[in-house]
Amino acid sequence: MKIIVNGEAMEIASSTLAGLLMELGKGDAKVATSLNEAFVPKALRQTQPLKNGDRVEIVAPRQGG
Amino acid sequence: MPEFYGKVIASRLMLGSAQYPSPAILAEAFRRSEAGTVTVSVRREADSEQAGQDFWALIQELGVAVLPNTAGCHSVREAVTTAQMARELFDTNWIKLEVIGNADTLQPDPFGLVEAAATLAEDGFEVFPYCTEDLVLCERLVEVGCKVLMPWGSPIGTGLGLNNIYGLRSLRANFPDISLVVDAGLGLPSQAAHAIELGYDAVLLNTAVAKAGDPATMAEGFARAVEAGALAAQADPMEPRDMAAPSTPVLGKAFL
After folding, report:
1. Which of B71, B167, B173, B232 could form an SS bridge with B133, CB 3.0 to 4.6 Å?
2. DSSP 3-state assignment of A61?
3. DSSP letter (8 states) at residue A46
4. Nearest to B120 by CA among B68, B59, B156, B168
5. Dist. CA B127–CA B163, nearest whole Å
């Protein structure tokens, strides 16, 4: 399936958000996620299905003012 | 000392974590600033990077309160989703809410700010709105649940200091029970001292320290400035006047 992750088109094998994070090597990383501009809490990633064309954002702690 | 949503912070200085020459200089600047709060953000992380994890470890070592921001957000939806992601990442209900309305001045969008603040407050967030010194805007923010207001001194990153002292003083007078923070635009410790002398609870700055030639020394300068400002505010300053008034007694002057 083809989705957009952090602004980049990507062909993925996973069918859930949690699966996508594992596929990207971020299964245990300290990250937060959104799907199609809506927040998806960590507890719901396992059951959050992905579909063709979805837009996923994966963010991490960063410097800020 | 400032109190934000029931939490007392041991310093009137809140410091950003961006733009330092190195992580070691950031840590040293925080040590010498004695800041009680650090601002952070959430950003995309490329596949191969672990920068976010390293940065988070560094922030935890500072041992200060963490205030995530929604920097760069121009819409209510963006700001709300960013705040929700930040709450999970940093495990805090605190959010420095930025909804930017103009790309050149980074001036807050007052209409979007009130809407986002209302949505977040309803969802249990403790909102620190980055706002202008507009009195009516600030009234609206308080009405939707903000117990902290963070008016700009001047636009972010300019170092122009306090552009509207009347407006800032007016906010202090109108909101005696709300914690007030001058956020953004400060370039020098004297400007921070001035904000605290006006009765502000704290100042929040980043660029003035991070972009100084010697960030750690500048950080200490700000630490001393906010202490000086607090002593002045506590000491009930004299009223300014237009006409001169001799300080040396006139009585007893020799007739020459």
Report:
1. B167
2. strand
3. G
4. B68
5. 24
Q: Which residues of B touch A64 (CB under 8 A)?
A: 16-18, 39-41, 68-69, 71
Query: What ipTM did this prediction achieve?
Result: 0.95
Spatial CB neighbours of B62, under 8 Å, sequence gap ≥ 6 = B27, B30, B38
What are the structural domains, with CATH classification, of chain A? 2-59 (3.10.20.30)
Q: Which residue has the tokens 């992601």?
A: B85
Active site residue B7: no
- Place B49 in a pLDDT band, splitting at 50, 70 and 90: low
Q: Which of A34, A38, A61 sits opposite B52 (nearest CB)?
A: A61
CB contact under 8 A, A60 and B45: yes
Residue of B nearest to A29 (CA): B53
B81/A59 CB distance under 8 A = no
Is the whole model's pTM more than 0.90, yes or no?
yes
